[in-house]
């Protein structure tokens, strides 16, 4: 590393050398090149940012409705504008004393006193102080490190002659030219210089919206690092050992026995994914496959088949689910399906008593248990499998990064690796699959079992809930069951619990002859299980629940779901919740109750859910809204590596970069390595999750 900077606050940002600084790329820019009159700024209430200047003609600390600082400025045209702060320091009061000349930047809105800017950026300058001639970069930072400090350090670092060496081009010119024919791809050092200090002659708009060639270079660099790292992971996997399980046709042996015992025939889509999975299982390196299929498409039975196949080959199998309720349900179902075939099943969750846990661990390590079902307790310390050959991770995206890393380590530790099948109802758009999961094969169940009637979704105002309650009786009279989902209360578990308890009481009161149960996250797991069991067996007719039932729960006789304050839930959650009904042949209904004030986004969300049951479409809307991190549950993993690219817009670049990484790895492996360490450094660990 060259040119140590000596200012210690920057250490907090990991900016220790000129190279670190150069690679700390602006997250956005401020345009301080233009000055408007106050009249212009006031004239356009469009959420646009303006920079104006004027003299302070009033400064006052107000106490109503709460303590705040009010400042008024007047420009040369005699136009006036209020500036307002809800938090402020004495130093600010001093800076903005009567008569001071200020240059301020912010959005104008209609305030109580008149047009105002709330918390604008303020500089005290002379009226004729020159404006910056180019964009001002804004950097990501942490508390205690000011933009001014970072800007200074980076401006200095960029001048460091040592950068010519530490930022020298790794990527072979001819390879770049071949991959991107006809495109301008600047050198890395010049791209970084442009991004830190755009010059007047640069196209500032394309710098701001990240389409400038300098951005292209940086996006390419990051994507390339990520692709290389994924390809390496893939290579590593292909070099590992796993038990090769001969491909078994479903018509033979124990698999056939199992299939015959099922009360249904597999759908065409289920048979197709089975073919794909069985091919993978027959290889001598570990499978890494994602089984995708919309809510209710029948993924569990595929997991059971594969587990049985592994057990038939003398291995142990494991199924891990993100919640106890779901794990418990899998346990019951697989017991029913597989125990008659002689499969011994162990059950392991965090809530087991010490003695039970020890017994389960003993079963697992001695090989007495063929199949182990549980929560992430399965990957915790003290659990040693005798011969794990196949593992299923259900609702994979619901596991946190930490748990996935733990799992990976567990898997990395052994000599003979296990085949992995991840399952998820959240469809991953192609772009995302390519960037985040280059080392993942994907199978899709694209067909629901026959005889399902579509779920009718209704939007109902909360005021009409009385009618909804009366409507429940008609459904119950047909022998059907009902879920009543309580509103999400993000800020407070306690409040959510209270709401659930109250809703339960209110329903019990309103429907005295109906058997109504309550399940929520605070119940002990035994209590949870017993309530769920009563619902499964039909002893409970209405189940009042929090989102603990969100994933996986399968009670085909439930045909009506009411979701309170549906506007508080996101796309994926509503889709998952709704998927709890419509699992039998009965016509199913999902009622989305909504409160008074609906934001535009919430309106659109509920309308989309009303109009479609297509999980893929819903996931795309969700992606557009929230970005890939949340969708994949990888907020801190893959996401962190791709800070500058809009995956939706730059799909072409992803494809090109993938080609480039393949070419690099096969022809210039050392360059690939250098590139990777320049960009990833310590972040590489996260990618493995
Ligand atoms: P998911 O894909 O959401 O995990 P499940 O595996 O829970 O779905 O399956 C939903 C329901 O459909 C279960 O009751 C399951 O037994 C049933 N099922 C699965 N496959 C079929 C099929 N081929 N025909 C009829 N019902 C099926
Ligand atoms: Mg499932």
TrEMBL record:
<dbReference type="InterPro" id="IPR033454">
    <property type="entry name" value="RecG_wedge"/>
</dbReference>
<dbReference type="Pfam" id="PF19833">
    <property type="entry name" value="RecG_dom3_C"/>
</dbReference>
<dbReference type="GO" id="GO:0043138">
    <property type="term" value="F:3'-5' DNA helicase activity"/>
</dbReference>
<dbReference type="InterPro" id="IPR004609">
    <property type="entry name" value="ATP-dep_DNA_helicase_RecG"/>
</dbReference>
<dbReference type="InterPro" id="IPR011545">
    <property type="entry name" value="DEAD/DEAH_box_helicase_dom"/>
</dbReference>
<comment type="function">
    <text>Plays a critical role in recombination and DNA repair. Helps process Holliday junction intermediates to mature products by catalyzing branch migration. Has replication fork regression activity, unwinds stalled or blocked replication forks to make a HJ that can be resolved. Has a DNA unwinding activity characteristic of a DNA helicase with 3'-5' polarity.</text>
</comment>
<dbReference type="Pfam" id="PF00271">
    <property type="entry name" value="Helicase_C"/>
</dbReference>
<dbReference type="InterPro" id="IPR012340">
    <property type="entry name" value="NA-bd_OB-fold"/>
</dbReference>
<keyword id="KW-0233">DNA recombination</keyword>
<dbReference type="GO" id="GO:0003677">
    <property type="term" value="F:DNA binding"/>
</dbReference>
<keyword id="KW-0378">Hydrolase</keyword>
<dbReference type="InterPro" id="IPR045562">
    <property type="entry name" value="RecG_dom3_C"/>
</dbReference>
<protein>
    <recommendedName>
        <fullName>ATP-dependent DNA helicase RecG</fullName>
        <ecNumber>5.6.2.4</ecNumber>
    </recommendedName>
</protein>
<keyword id="KW-0547">Nucleotide-binding</keyword>
<keyword id="KW-0413">Isomerase</keyword>
<comment type="similarity">
    <text>Belongs to the helicase family. RecG subfamily.</text>
</comment>
<dbReference type="GO" id="GO:0006310">
    <property type="term" value="P:DNA recombination"/>
</dbReference>
<keyword id="KW-0234">DNA repair</keyword>
<dbReference type="Pfam" id="PF00270">
    <property type="entry name" value="DEAD"/>
</dbReference>
<keyword id="KW-0067">ATP-binding</keyword>
<dbReference type="GO" id="GO:0005524">
    <property type="term" value="F:ATP binding"/>
</dbReference>
<dbReference type="GO" id="GO:0016887">
    <property type="term" value="F:ATP hydrolysis activity"/>
</dbReference>
<dbReference type="InterPro" id="IPR047112">
    <property type="entry name" value="RecG/Mfd"/>
</dbReference>
<keyword id="KW-0238">DNA-binding</keyword>
<dbReference type="Pfam" id="PF17191">
    <property type="entry name" value="RecG_wedge"/>
</dbReference>
<dbReference type="GO" id="GO:0006281">
    <property type="term" value="P:DNA repair"/>
</dbReference>
<feature type="domain" description="Helicase ATP-binding">
    <location>
        <begin position="280"/>
        <end position="445"/>
    </location>
</feature>
<dbReference type="InterPro" id="IPR027417">
    <property type="entry name" value="P-loop_NTPase"/>
</dbReference>
<feature type="domain" description="Helicase C-terminal">
    <location>
        <begin position="455"/>
        <end position="624"/>
    </location>
</feature>
<keyword id="KW-0347">Helicase</keyword>
<dbReference type="InterPro" id="IPR014001">
    <property type="entry name" value="Helicase_ATP-bd"/>
</dbReference>
<dbReference type="InterPro" id="IPR001650">
    <property type="entry name" value="Helicase_C-like"/>
</dbReference>
<keyword id="KW-0227">DNA damage</keyword>
